[in-house]
Structures are given as C-alpha cells and as structure tokens.
Amino acid sequence: MATAVITIASLPKTSSEGRAGVVITTTALLWCTEGMPLMITALLPAILFPFAGTLTAKEVCSKYFNDISMLLLGTFLMAESVEACGLHRRIALGILSLLGHSECLLMLGAQLVTWKLSMFMSNTATTAMMLPIIRAIIESLRKIQNDVSRKNDLELQRVEENPSVAGTLPETDGDVDSSLDSAQFTWFCKGLILSIPYGASIGGIATLTGTPPNLVFTGYFQETFPDAPNLDYGKWMAFAYPISLLTVCLGWHVLVLMYARNSYIDLWYSVYRRFQRLVHPNQPQSPDSEETKKWRNVNQIIRKKYRTLGPLRFPEIVLFALTVILVLLWLLRDPAGLKGWADMHSDNTWDGKDKKPVYLSDSWVVILVGLCLFNIPTENPLLGTWLWAAPPGKKFSRSEKLLTMDTVMQKTSWDVIILLGGGYAIAAGCQSSGLSQWLGDSFSFLEGQDERVVALVISTLVAFLTEVASNTASTTLLMPILAAMSISLKLNPLYLMLTGTISASLAFCLPSATGPNALVFSFKEIRVIDMLRTGLLMNFCSILIVVMGVSTWTRSIMGITDEFPAWANITLV
C-alpha cells in the first residue's frame, strides 16, 4: 500500500488514467495474492481514489451500499432462515433418496441438489452443508464395501474348512479403515466429492442473486447505461437457467465418464434390460448382483436419515411457502412483453421521454419478505386457540421467530457485501479516470472479427483469470473494460458483458479459485492434480456452452441485435 501511495504521488496530476491504474493494480494484486483479507482489500479504493484525485470521498463511499447490496442482504436473510430450520437438509436428503441407486446416479443426485440449492443460497454455504452428507454416504459405502470384501474372503476360507457355516459371518461395526479401499472405490469418491463444488459454482449462474459476479454486472450495467432496458430477475433466469442446466448436465457426464465409467455403462445396460422386460415380460429375470445389493443398502441408509427428520414442521412449511412467493414476485414483477405487478405504482410525472423510473425493484421484494421473517413465530400461532387445538402436553412459544438479529449478525456474510461495494468503487474509478476507455480502445485489433470469436476470446480469458483471482474481483475489474471494449468495437455491451459475467463462475481447476473448491480439500481423497485434471476439461466444455448460449437464445431474450443500440452510445469518462 505504501508503494501505491508513493507511486501515485510521483505521477503528474494530469495522468488520471495512470493514477487510477495504480489503485486498481494494487487492489488486484492483493486480491490475487490474498496478502490481506479480501474484505480489507476491498476498502482500499475508499482510501486511494480520493488521494489520487480520481473520485471524492463522498463519491467513492456512496458506491459501497446500494440497491444491489440490499438485494444481496435480503438473499442472505432468506438463506439464513432456511439453514436455521433445516429445510435445506430435508431437500438434499429427499433428492438423494430418489437418485441414490448407483454410483453415477448418486453423483447426479449430489450435483443436482447442490446446483439447485446454490441458486438461492451462497455457493460456499451450500457446499459446506452438502459435504457432511457426502462424508456420511462415503463412510456408509466404505463400510458396505469392506463388509462384502470381508465376507467374500473369510466365508470362502470358512466354507472350505466347514461348509455348514456359510453365510453366518457378522457385519463389522464402528469405523472402517480407509486404507482398505479399492482403487475403483477411491476413484469414485473423488468424482462424488468434486461434484459438490462444481454443482455449486454452476448453480450460481442460474439466478440473479446466485453469485456476487451477477450482482456486480447488474449494478455496473444499470449505472453505466441508465437508458438500457431493465434487467430483472425473470429476464436473467430466462437466459441463464438454460446455460446453467446444460453446463450441469455436461459436468455430470464429464465426472461419471472420468470417475464412474463402469457404472455409467451399467446404467444404460439396466435401461436396456428394463426395455427388454417390457417387450418380453415372460422372460426369466436374472438375480441381482452384489453391486445392486450394495446400492440398495446405501439407498436404505439415505432414506433412514431422511426419516429421522420426521414430518414437515411449521417453520419449514412457512419458509417453503415464502420462498415460492418470493420467486414468483421476482418473476412477475416486470415480465418481458407483459404488464407486471410493479406497474401498479404509476408515476404521474413521467413524461415518456426518459427511461421509466423503477420504484419497486427486486431488492424491495426480498427485503419485504426478509422483514416478515423477523415477525413470524417458529410455532404455529393458531395452536392452542379455538381454531387449532394443541396436542396434549405440547409446549410452545410464540416469542421465538424464524429469524433473529443474533443469527443475522453471526451468519450474514458482511465481507461479501463490502467486497461487492469495493467492486463498484473500482468500476466507478476506472470509468471516471478514463482508464476503462483507454483499455477498451486497446482491443481495437479485434474490430471486424466475428462477434462469436470475440466472445470466445473473452470467455476463455475470464474463465482462466478467475482461477487465480476471486470471481467477484475478476468481474469487478473486467466490467468497465468490457463496456469500453463493446463501445469501441460497436457491439451491444450486453453481449460481451454477459459473456464475461457468466464465465467468471467457471472456476473448476484450483482450490484457491472459489470457496467451494477450497472446502472439498477437507477430504483426504482429493488432491490438486485431481481438481486440475477434471477442471480443465470442465472449463473448455463450459466455455463453449456459454458462448453458444449468449450467441443464440440470449440474443432474442435480451433484444441483442447486430445494430449498435442508441442507449450504449455514450462516452465513458
């Protein structure tokens, strides 16, 4: 930091781009090397930009908390309530009980659960919640596998000595030595564990609040291009959900072909056998294999864990209903081509010339629902009244609420909110100094190239940059550059900026790339080379899906045409 201050002081005041470049380079290096905590580094622009004369203290501080920050805060409130009541665990075990019938289906179930939950929860929190479940499943599988192996070896020896004792060997109890794992089982465990962080990263793409880079883009885009069409929750899901769905399907195929190939082949063979049974119902059926019996036991263990949760409790029902209401309100607030419920707030002063003001945004919706959480009790308020008789001996309290301030202060990721604000401050400084325009002009060599080639270059650069830097930091640094580059190349800014934003979530190679990637190294089965080998293939395949999605259906949903839009014809100074 001292070096940055000295360098800024030595530069002439007329070199606004150079001074801003020093601030951004210093922040980026500290983000990449994690020389200081990410949140502390995010506060540097509030100190250095006013010192460099790029922004006033009032201007830079106002960027740290805005409409998008409130949207993120409201999402945290919902996620904390879901975690507090255990609804996320019920959803996870429920889906796993449906799909846990083979190695490849178990990987599919684990990845789908993580993918779905991470759309509405923090990717890191989703991963942290899923890993204990996966650990329990692996230990159960290990015990079953070692029991089968032990029975096969010792029963054979005992039968040879005394044929009358066949099948009487008891199962082992307690912990099982993992050093006895077969190479195939260890290999499968690697794939099952990796399916969790990959599912979390991919799931964050699907919703506007799924991951901070989406909010970084939205905030910068709305501020830089105020006359651009509104980008709300519904529009985002319309284009990003298919990209996320295709990527998670591809990810599952990559993982099963690398780590559970035999199970994948057996899956399709079992489908073929079932089809044969439908065609020839009288054909005699072969007995189940040991592998089938093992997975039947695994599924019973998962179902037993699910049954221990008991019936749905009052807070789970309420939170599920509130989540459904929240998503519906987001989707129907301003649906494309239709009149949304937000239009009920008419503005009599609007003259129809400028962009229509938005009074009721997505952040308003989630904060409204979030405030309700502080007032709804954890027990049914009708219990003990003439409407709903309480069970005999039932003790309940209406004082405990679904969400408390203690929970909010302890579990809310305030560092992410500060990090997001630091990103907006950097974007403002980059734009105000003219640095983003200068960097955008430096990509003029791409002018005249096919836009899909440009998108492929951008997607590849961003996807590998985010392996060594926080995805939020990468998006923050690149949004002003991509906006200026789009203007320089006369491309719709949405095309390149959406490509860069989605690509920032494609961090599959290194443990330092994202929180979910780092968490899985609590398992001794995972090594860096495993993640790197799988992640490289995931990266290249995902990049192609992103470019294909942005170049096809996203164009029609977002209204992207070959003509340069009038709202983008601005000067970034």
Write the layout of secondary structure elements.
Blueprint (H helix, E strand, L loop, with lengths): L1 H9 L5 H18 L4 H5 L1 H9 L4 H5 L5 H19 L1 H13 L3 H15 L5 H39 L21 H21 L8 H13 L8 H27 L1 H19 L10 H18 L6 H19 L29 H12 L31 H7 L2 H19 L2 H7 L9 H15 L5 H19 L3 H11 L11 H5 L8 H24 L1 H6 L15
Helix pairs in contact: 2-4, 4-18, 6-11, 6-15, 6-16, 7-8, 7-14, 8-10, 8-12, 9-10, 9-14, 10-12, 11-18, 11-21, 11-22, 12-13, 12-24, 15-16, 18-21, 19-21, 20-22, 20-24, 21-22, 22-24
Question: What tags apply to this protein structure?
Answer:
25 helices, mainly alpha, 65% helix, 573 residues
Can you put this structure into words, describing what you see?
This protein has 573 residues and is mainly alpha-helical. The protein is 65% helix and 0% strand. The chain is built from 25 helices and no strands. Helix 18 packs parallel to helix 21. The chain is globular. The two termini are 26 Å apart. About 3% of the residues have low confidence.
The gist of it:
The protein has helices spanning 2-10, 16-33, 38-42, 44-52, 57-61, 67-85, 87-99, 103-117, 123-161, 183-203, 212-224, 233-259, 261-279, 290-307, 314-332, 362-373, 405-411, 414-432, 435-441, 451-465, 471-489, 493-503, 515-519, 528-551, 553-558.
- Radius of gyration, whole Å: 27 Å
Largest sheet: none
Low-confidence stretches: 152-156, 163-177
The gross shape turns out to be globular
- Record field, number of beta strands: 0
Strand proportion: under 5%
Total DSSP helices: 25
As a percent range, the share of helical residues equals 55-70%
